[in-house]
């Protein structure tokens, strides 16, 4: 006999720590996961915010950063990701709202982000949360293959922004 069961988890949003990194293998290539240590250090130094949405066990199921350098007067959201098994459960919304609160806490009134043109699902989420497109820009990053070789991934992103309430 099978049936659907509803499970509710109390999620918390906190700063990513170096101790979290071993539990973030779902978040991307091995290179990306290794670089999370550096992001946690940058966050600890106050340069950026890097958030982790965690289960009651403390393990991250969503991650995302806010960088304050790229766009004067704004926080730029980047590296947003939710564990693949938990997408479409509202966790991304929770993460983005927490990031927006961090931006507002620094006295800024605008959030910005870039979403790949071929990612309509993420773009639809951002639009539901009030982000509006204002341009396009090329982007790229190095991706590590399973054999350890690096390749450059090139894409075009839709640039989006949202005015935040104080």
Structure characterization notes:
The protein is an alpha+beta fold. The protein is built from 3 helices and 7 strands. The protein has helices at 30-44, 91-105, 120-128; strands at residues 12-15, 48-54, 60-67, 75-82, 110-116, 132-144, 150-163. Strands 1-2-3-4-5-7-6 form a 7-stranded mixed beta sheet, with helices on both faces. A hairpin with a 5-residue loop joins strand 6 (132-144) and strand 7. The protein is globular, with a radius of gyration of 16 Å.
Number of E-state strands: 7
What is the number of helices? Answer: 3
Mean of residue pLDDT values: 94
Low-confidence stretches: none
Rg, rounded, reads 16 Å
Strand content: 35-45%
Largest sheet: 7 strands, mixed
Q: How much helical structure, as a percent, in the residues? A: 10-25%
Shape from CA axes? globular
Structural class category? alpha+beta
The SSE string, one letter per element, is: EHEEEHEHEE
The first-to-last residue Cα distance is 52 Å
**Order of strands in the sheet with most strands:** 1-2-3-4-5-7-6
Blueprint of the fold:
Layout: E1 12-15, H1 30-44, E2 48-54, E3 60-67, E4 75-82, H2 91-105, E5 110-116, H3 120-128, E6 132-144, E7 150-163
Parallel strand pairs: 4-5
Antiparallel strand pairs: 1-2, 2-3, 3-4, 5-7, 6-7
